[in-house]
Specification:
Layout (H helix, E strand, L loop, with lengths): L1 H5 L9 H6 L12 H18 L20 H4 L4 E6 L6 H11 L3 E5 L2 H13 L4 E4 L4 E2 L6 E5 L8 E8 L10 H10 L1 E9 L4 H7 L6 E6 L6 E3 L14 E4 L3 H13 L4 E5 L5 H12 L5 E6 L13 E4 L3 E3 L4 E3 L2 H8 L12 E5 L5 H9 L8 E3 L3 H10 L5 H11 L6 E3 L3 H10 L6 H8 L8 H17 L19 H23 L7 H21 L7 H22 L2
Parallel strand pairs: 1-7, 1-8, 2-5, 2-6, 3-5, 6-7, 9-16, 10-12, 10-13, 11-12, 13-16, 17-18
Antiparallel strand pairs: 3-4, 14-15
Amino acid sequence: MASMLLRRRRISALGVSRVLQAVNGDSFRLGPEPKKFETIASLDVRIRNFSSGNGTAKFDFTDLTRPHTWYPNARKKNRKVFLHVGPTNSGKTYHALKRLESSSSGVYCGPLRLLAWEVAKRLNKAKVPCDLITGQEKEEVDGAKHKAVTVEMADITSDYQCAIIDEIQMLGCKTRGFSFTRALLGIAADELHLCGDAAAVPLIQELLKVTGDDVQVQSYDRLLPLVPLELPLGSFSNIRTGDCIVSFSRKEIYRLKKKIETGGSHLCSVVYGSLPPETRTRQATMFNDASSEFDVLVASDAIGMGLNLNISRIIFSTLQKFDGLEMRDLTVPEIKQIAGRAGRYGSKFPWGEVTCLDATDLPLLHSSLKSASPILEQAGVFPSFDLIYMYSRLKPKRGLYRILEDFLENAKLSENYFFANCEEMLKVAAVIDGLPLSLHDKYLFCISPVDMNDEISSQGLKQFAETYARKGLVHLREIFTPGTLEVPKTPTALKELESIHKVLDLYVWLSFRLEESFPDHELASSQKNICSLLIEEFLERLGWQKPRSKKLASITTLKSLMEDKKRRYFCD
């Protein structure tokens, strides 16, 4: 099995070494260097020791009670950890970024690609060369000793003078918390700056008691006041420039946009989670531009982090959302995170306001804003590929689905940790387990950014995996016909285009990790960009006012960009 695992095609710089670092632990890397072979060999020795009956000390691969010991590089340092805690728009991340700018080397780890983009842009503008590394892109700058990355891409093998983990309270997230825990315990930096909600402080202090790190807490207050209004919005004629109406239904977002624009006084930008990040950024830019006609924002909770928005007033259309299982009230942290987006420091608004469409929601809004967020009690954790691989050697006839299921059932944790929800991984494993793929390849597909609840996205992953298993080479044109994308004419067609964007995004992600097997990186990236532009044009055409000259010019620009990309990639 080890020989099979080592028999890899050439992989990009963001290849297996990054993939194997994408979960907790200093994972082995695959490649020709002797040390890497020695690492695999040492794993096999440990496996033999574990399974032999000769009295050799056993190694329990399911013992995850001391995750801080998985990161020897970080444990060699006497890290100074600074907790910057406070509400949204309090300047906590700003102060941490100023320290990063002045450091000789460093890394910013954010929860979203949008945040990594923003930080990389900021540092480069400040003449601090900074690389951008996310799951889908790698932009290197000559001489850069700083990186802006999504937290899953944090490099725990490098040394830094300064590191930042933004939105650190997400270590309690059921699905992604393990990536924040890994960064917290594993980044080897002289200074580690953690930015987020004060609710995470006691847990972080407890987790770091055993690491020997020096922990300091710096608290911040909002830079501008946030005023909860006593009255609901009332009539939609009360909508004004700078308002943001928040809804948790894609259909409702478009209904609200139509209703507001039918009034004839405003045009609405739109932001929600399934929009491509590039589209969200452009929509936010239009809203923030004081000279733009798009002076109102209709958005989902996607605005809670990742975008700097000049919002005067947040208006909740409802305080309930469907969480995948049931309709429920928003939690205190969710309400505070979204409401806090009003009144951004540096905007033209002297304070922020928040209210609801429905008067019956005001009591929950007011009580939540007065309440402290519940204290986090546990951090997410997940076994590294090392452990999954070693455990699989004990059960060689089982597929990845059964291996994951058994491992999680038998694994042991301390009271400060919980297992991340791996439901999505298990869904992928169930689909691909019957394919003739190595454990590593199956694991790679399982941690990919596929949306298994999206039929087109899940079908795309299945086709990629089947073609890769059969031929070892996946050309984009085999499952997607370039040049066929067009501006959607209905919300249903828009949803389909968003799904196609997810499939193209998945191909780009795989092309970074299996470069020779997924060779059409540029083509997939260009098609992604075209998707974003087509979605953008749909959103502009959806305006219910007659578009004025500036809007027409914007659409003309989008058409020009699309025609240029089509000429570049599709003219044979």
